[in-house]
Amino acid sequence: MNSTLHTHRYLLQYAIKPSVQRTAVMDYLLKNRTHPTIDEIYTALSPSMPTLSKTTVYNTLNLFLEKGAVQALVIDEKNARYDIDTSAHAHFICKKCGKVYDIFGLKPEVFELPQNPNFTIDSVEIAYSGTCNACKES
Amino acid sequence: MNSTLHTHRYLLQYAIKPSVQRTAVMDYLLKNRTHPTIDEIYTALSPSMPTLSKTTVYNTLNLFLEKGAVQALVIDEKNARYDIDTSAHAHFICKKCGKVYDIFGLKPEVFELPQNPNFTIDSVEIAYSGTCNACKES
DNA sequence: CTTTGTGCAAATTCTTTGCACCAAA
DNA sequence: TTTGGTGCAAAGAATTTGCACAAAG
């Protein structure tokens, strides 16, 4: 199957002009729902796109953010991580290995935005942390 | 009142050897519950402690973290922020000015740790974001 | 004395910026 | 041919590290 065409259309939905690089990055995000860092995206795409620069990956993700096509996760102290899934879900980060996992199926109350006289609240991010099984065994 | 004595005892509770610098930093955290960054702490203490170095503030906060006397907030993309309040509460960050506020009085269900076969979850951080009134008016 | 803490400077890491070249319409 | 995209190199910001000196017991 040719996923490039699908990804191309996907970008247009967010009013993002497709380019070879942008399509490759979005394609990666759609297929690898692992909340990758800039470096992970760059390292994954670099072998098949040797001229790709990390600056372009930064530029691209910043554009996707502006256009609302991805969400930035603030969960990892070291690097920014990106998520294309904008539905109501939470995240879990393993403090040992640093991997970030999705948590679905939580009670809807958890995602409710409280009323507050001092602020206009428009989103919530829920970050659980602890240890994943893989790290516990080793 | 001499708060140094109180702060001194407070540090000992967490098995932290008090020093002039450590006591000053903890004293600042106890009195300024504004989730300060390293730089804010350094800038606040520097005038009355001219020899204080930013490295010492980093060292001190890392020690406090290890000993469990403070919590690191992962909410601000730019800087680490520290909180001495370890009770169940959430945070709000204004996307315009970057200030972080406490949110108390949420339903207890929000802080429940879900069971998950793949991870051992031991804490949760809830970060609301939006715009604060001060920024909306300007 | 001996151990531990402090603070300077340098190193490291992540991200942004300036600018020249390239590509697409 | 003009506009916008890409990518190199340099700059910037936050944090850590190595090491010598100072402090405390």
Describe the structure in your own words.
Two copies of one chain form a homodimer. With 138 residues, chain A is of the alpha+beta class. In chain A, 36% of the residues lie in helices and 21% in strands. A three-stranded mixed beta sheet of chain A has the order 4-3-5. In chain A, strands 1-2 form a two-stranded antiparallel ribbon. The interface between A and B is medium-sized, with 35 and 35 residues.
SSE blueprint and pairings:
2 copies of one chain form a homodimer.
Chain A: H1 3-13, H2 20-31, H3 38-45, H4 54-66, E1 71-73, E2 81-83, E3 90-94, E4 100-103, E5 119-132, H5 133-137
Parallel strand pairs in A: 3-5
Antiparallel strand pairs in A: 1-2, 3-4
Helix pairs in contact in A: 1-2, 3-4
Chain A binds a DNA duplex (25 and 25 nucleotides) through helix 4.
